[in-house]
Design goal:
The chain is α/β, with parallel strands linked by helices and 521 residues long. It folds into two domains: 196 residues, P-loop containing nucleotide triphosphate hydrolases (Rossmann fold, 3-Layer(aba) Sandwich), CATH 3.40.50; 186 residues, Nucleotidyltransferase, domain 5, CATH 3.30.420. It is built from 16 helices and 17 strands. The strands form three sheets. An eight-stranded mixed β-sheet has the order 5-6-7-4-8-9-3-10, with helices on both faces. A hairpin with a 4-residue loop joins strand 13 and strand 14. The longest helix is centred in the C-terminal third of the chain and has 22 residues. The chain is elongated. It starts with 15 loop residues before the first strand and ends with a helix.
């Protein structure tokens, strides 16, 4: 009888260390040797050593994608004096808050110190190394402005935020050739281009577009992940998968907190780096770059506010109770800005919270799951304007299609025939809703939502949107409600307990008094 060999479990990930040495201002009194030591995890090494023209580091949150990108830029700039490169993201503000922070923290300052001939120009957003290499930081909102550039490499962070046309039109910018070399290019790609185009030319860097992205639907999935999954990557394309577990440098509570605060499907996407979760999405047009509101809620620009509630069950394994508030802005957009999502059914805490928000934001209506009549009645009895959410046959499909029309950049009933902007935006303060929108699926066989998926946040949001956009209930004129904050800056108003919460406390006091009276009697 054959003996089964013992199972060999993989050991802990080992960090690999690399050194780059350079002598600055040699032969002068300012001569200084710089040693750049970089510790990289296996997936980062795999990404940096790949020689394909188009490389995507695509996976979960936290495996060190941005760190790998900034080191890729540094390595190319140190190796090729005078090279010009682009480091891009859709929004420059986001780039400054992520990649630029890493550059300033992990690049030795001497590399771009003016004392040695370098510079970091904060106003124009570029680095120049001591050897004349330049890295331009930029945004891809207007990618056509880069079409005439001549560069040696292109880096795109969060490539899922940009359209494929940007990627395709940046490729021809890879044509930088150094002036100082007299050697001929011996790279395979320089030789194997066919007799029609083959000619001797100078040695040049490996031209690459290096990208990083979280799992997302769209062109990255089609161009990189799907061929990689099938074992037939496109020519000159490489996909480097990664999970949050590929970076032991993360804080110990990073992964547990993400698991606690997000849906199971979201966890598959952004912790395990699973791109397959984006099959059959209900809202493939949703993009965090486009549909997530950044900055303060513009209360002075609000016409009116309405809410949506989906009641959960009473056990720990039951559905969650979720509630949202959405404001109609004066430019016609709808901004969802407040979220409540907890395991279990209705509670006195939720009743108190809804009562508080109703008064605080002067909520016109709450559109609630009609299957929980008792909870809805309790709210109504305490002055909360609750109406039953639509339950007619086909209401779910109508709600899903409605949200889709509000996401796309096309004329609709919300735009008055105009194209764009998107008419539905969600504030970052609603993380479970955002993850729910990103992972909500449709069964392609039936056209209905998939069974047994986490849909509590999406249901409450759907009730909210169907209600606030309801034409027959929309006001004919703007209500005279002032949503702007009146309290002085820094002053927090004391909030009184809601009527519902106070009633519960009074009932408890009464029962306690009765029990005490009986005990004394």
């Amino acid at each position: 009888m054959a003996v089964k060999p013992p199972e060999v479990k993989p050991g802990p990930l080992q960090q690999e260390w690399f050194e780059d040495r350079v002598v600055l201002r040699p032969g002068t009194v300012d001569e200084k040797e710089i040693v750049v030591r970089t510790g990289l995890w296996p997936k980062q090494v795999q990404f940096l050593q790949n020689t394909s023209r188009y490389v995507l580091f695509g996976g979960a949150r936290g495996p060190g994608k941005t760190v790998a990108l900034i080191h890729a830029a540094r390595i190319k700039m140190m190796a090729w004096p005078g090279i010009r490169g682009l480091y891009l993201r859709k929004d420059l503000k986001d780039l400054k808050g992520t990649a630029l922070v890493e550059m300033l923290a992990k690049w030795p300052k001497e590399l771009y110190d003016p004392r040695y001939g370098g510079q970091f120009h904060k106003g124009e957003n570029w680095f120049r190394y001591w050897n004349g290499s330049v890295l331009q930081l930029g945004e891809l909102k207007d990618w056509e402005s880069y079409k005439s550039a001549t560069v040696g490499f292109v880096i795109i962070d969060e490539a899922n935020e940009v359209e494929e046309d940007a990627f395709l039109n940046l490729d021809p910018t890879l044509r930088w050739i150094p002036e100082w070399t007299t050697e001929s290019c011996e790279r395979p790609e320089c030789k194997d281009i066919g007799e029609e185009f083959a000619r001797e030319h100078k040695k040049h860097p490996l031209y690459q577009i290096l990208m990083a992205s979280n799992p997302a639907p769209g062109w990255l999935k089609t161009r990189f992940w799907e061929p990689w999954k099938d074992g037939h990557e496109l020519s000159n394309h490489a996909f480097i998968p990664a999970t949050a577990y590929d970076n032991p440098s993360l804080p110990p509570d990073f992964i547990p907190r993400l698991m606690e605060n997000h849906t199971a499907t979201w966890v598959q996407n952004f912790i395990h780096g699973d791109w397959s979760s984006f099959e059959n999405m209900a809202w493939p047009a949703f993009s965090r770059a486009t549909h997530c509101w950044r900055g303060a809620v513009p209360f002075a620009e609000i016409d009116y506010i309405e809410g949506g509630i989906d009641w959960g069950g009473t056990t720990e394994e039951a559905h969650r109770t979720c509630a949202y508030l959405t404001a109609r802005l004066r430019d016609g957009r709808y901004l969802t800005f407040w979220e409540y999502s907890k395991q279990g059914g209705a509670s006195t805490d939720l009743f108190a919270e809804i009562g508080l928000k109703t008064r605080q934001f002067k909520v016109r209506r709450w559109w609630a799951d009609a299957s929980q009549n008792r909870a809805n009645e309790l709210l109504r009895n305490n002055g909360v304007p609750v109406v039953d959410a639509p339950r007619y046959k086909g209401a779910v499909k109508d709600g899903l299609n409605l949200v889709h029309r509000m996401m796309v950049d096309a004329p609709s009933e919300f735009s008055g025939g105009r194209v764009g902007p998107q008419w539905m935006v969600v504030e970052d303060a609603c993380p479970r809703l955002i993850s729910g929108i990103e992972t909500y699926k449709i069964d392609p066989a039936t056209g209905e939502p998939e069974r047994n998926q986490e849909d509590d946040e999406v249901n409450a949001f759907r009730y909210n949107i169907m209600g606030i956009t309801s034409k027959e209930l929309a006001p004919r004129e703007r209500p005279s409600v002032d949503y702007s904050v009146k309290s002085p800056a820094g002053v927090v108003r004391a909030q009184k307990p809601s009527g519902m919460l106070q009633r519960v406390k009074d009932e408890r006091r009464s029962r306690y008094a009765e029990l005490l009276a009986r005990a004394r009697g």
